């Protein structure tokens, strides 16, 4: 009894093998192909991938039912003393002239205004709007043409592989609109979670937007125009998870590449060798 019996990789003596020119070409091509696939798999193993999923839940339960909002908007034809931010929602909040964490920057020698504000809203349907409602004296014809530089909700996500509508209204230009028109932006806010490799989660919000502009009238005459942002929250949460390919999957792929390539190359070499030998025999038969 010998342990050599269990050797399934029996060796063929070198003097019983026959090298060929086509076999050498196939071997070189086979090695280059394996190297290319190995480098491709290695790149994929080192790099991280972003996996997304959808589920119904409120991901940021520690926020106290609040969403942070960042607004940056320019009104080039409205004085800063007339510009104000109003907030209201279905929980009964009705705040006119919100001033906390806000800043007004004069534009066009004081004829215009850039409003920058950071405030919070409740996680219920509602609206916030830029208007002249908080002004001590209402202007006759307030010009609500504007440019939106930024409107975002929650934390700022700067992730290379995540392309979402986190600032969908960036660059919205309404300077050529009717100066006396109101503007309605209807927002559907989608909670978004990003989890990195360490398991740390960041909470943000994407949103879709539809808009319209109109001149509103009532029985008393024309209604003072405003820029409305009407929002509602989606029950669906989008989660992005940063992952890296498991080591066992990388090893399995490499084994499959090497084994599969050598097997196919061996079959190809065997077919070419068999065909060339048969052709030589046919040629010898013709000569005889």
UniProtKB/TrEMBL annotation:
GO cellular component: COPII-coated ER to Golgi transport vesicle; endoplasmic reticulum membrane; endoplasmic reticulum-Golgi intermediate compartment membrane; Golgi membrane
Pfam families in the cross-refs: COPIIcoated_ERV, ERGIC_N
Membrane topology according to the record: Multi-pass membrane protein
UniProt subcellular location: Endoplasmic reticulum membrane; Endoplasmic reticulum-Golgi intermediate compartment membrane; Golgi apparatus membrane
GO biological process terms on file: endoplasmic reticulum to Golgi vesicle-mediated transport; retrograde vesicle-mediated transport, Golgi to endoplasmic reticulum
UniProtKB keywords: Endoplasmic reticulum, ER-Golgi transport, Golgi apparatus, Membrane, Transmembrane, Transmembrane helix, Transport
Main subcellular location of this protein, as a coarse class: endoplasmic reticulum
TM region(s), chain numbering: 20-39, 247-268
Residues of the Endoplasmic reticulum vesicle transporter C-terminal domain: 105-269
Positions of the Endoplasmic reticulum vesicle transporter N-terminal domain: 5-95
Family in the record: Belongs to the ERGIC family.
Record's function text: Plays a role in transport between endoplasmic reticulum and Golgi.
Protein name in UniProt: Endoplasmic reticulum-Golgi intermediate compartment protein
Organism: Burhinus bistriatus
Taxonomy of the source species: Eukaryota, Metazoa, Chordata, Craniata, Vertebrata
């Amino acid at each position: 009894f010998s342990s050599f019996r269990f050797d399934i990789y029996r060796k063929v003596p070198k003097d019983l093998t026959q090298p060929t020119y086509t076999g050498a070409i196939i071997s070189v091509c086979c090695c280059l192909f394996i190297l290319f696939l190995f480098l491709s798999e290695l790149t994929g193993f080192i790099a991280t991938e972003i996996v997304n999923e959808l589920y119904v839940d409120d991901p940021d339960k520690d926020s106290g039912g609040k969403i942070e909002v960042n607004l940056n908007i320019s009104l080039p034809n409205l004085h800063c003393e007339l510009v104000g931010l109003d907030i209201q929602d279905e929980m009964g909040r009705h705040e006119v002239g919100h001033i906390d964490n806000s800043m007004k920057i004069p534009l066009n020698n004081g004829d215009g205004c850039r409003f920058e504000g950071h405030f919070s809203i409740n996680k219920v349907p509602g609206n916030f709007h830029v208007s002249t409602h908080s002004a001590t004296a209402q202007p006759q014809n307030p010009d609500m043409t504007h440019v939106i530089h930024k409107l975002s909700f929650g934390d700022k996500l700067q992730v290379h592989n995540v392309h979402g509508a986190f600032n969908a209204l960036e660059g919205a230009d309404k300077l050529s609109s009717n100066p006396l028109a109101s503007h309605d932006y209807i927002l559907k806010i989608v909670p978004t979670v990003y989890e990195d490799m360490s398991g740390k989660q960041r909470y943000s919000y994407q949103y879709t937007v539809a808009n319209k502009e109109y001149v509103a009238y009532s029985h008393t005459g024309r209604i003072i125009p405003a820029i409305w942002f009407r929002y509602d929250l989606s029950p669906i949460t989008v989660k992005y998870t940063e992952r890296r390919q498991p080591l066992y999957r990388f090893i399995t792929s490499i084994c499959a590449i090497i084994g599969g390539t050598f097997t196919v190359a061996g079959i190809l070499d065997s077919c070419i060798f068999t065909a060339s030998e048969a052709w030589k025999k046919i040629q010898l038969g013709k000569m005889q």
